[in-house]
Amino acid sequence: MKKTFAFFAFLGAMAFTAAQTITFDNTTLDYGTVKQNSDGNRVFTVKNTGKKPLIITSVKPSCGCTTPDFSKDPIAPGKSGHIKVHYNTAITGGFQKLIEVFSNDPENSRSVIYIKGNVLAAGTPETKSVTNTARKK
């Protein structure tokens, strides 16, 4: 009985290791400080590090100010795909938004990626930090 259980446990583990696996080059994209109405497009790279095709089934932003776009085509093992994200830079101020990515990865069917940054109102001067490098005598 113990051998039978161990055999099926091994088969189950093998099924997961042979499955598709979603990985991201970066789970947070920092826009930094951008001007109002500037380019709000950014791209996440998604890689399939598993042995079967990875399918992204859905990408859902946390609010209407963020619009994702992604390919519905399967990502072959060892290959990469992209999730394009557009943030509405007409909205000023700091932001941090999450985006849910749903896939057929059996161990991680829901992944979360983030965008963050700060949008300056038009006409607002950018502030730069200054470091005092003068030496005291």
TrEMBL record:
Residues 1-18 form the signal peptide. Keywords: Signal. Pfam families: DUF1573. InterPro entries: DUF1573, Ig-like_fold. This is DUF1573 domain-containing protein.
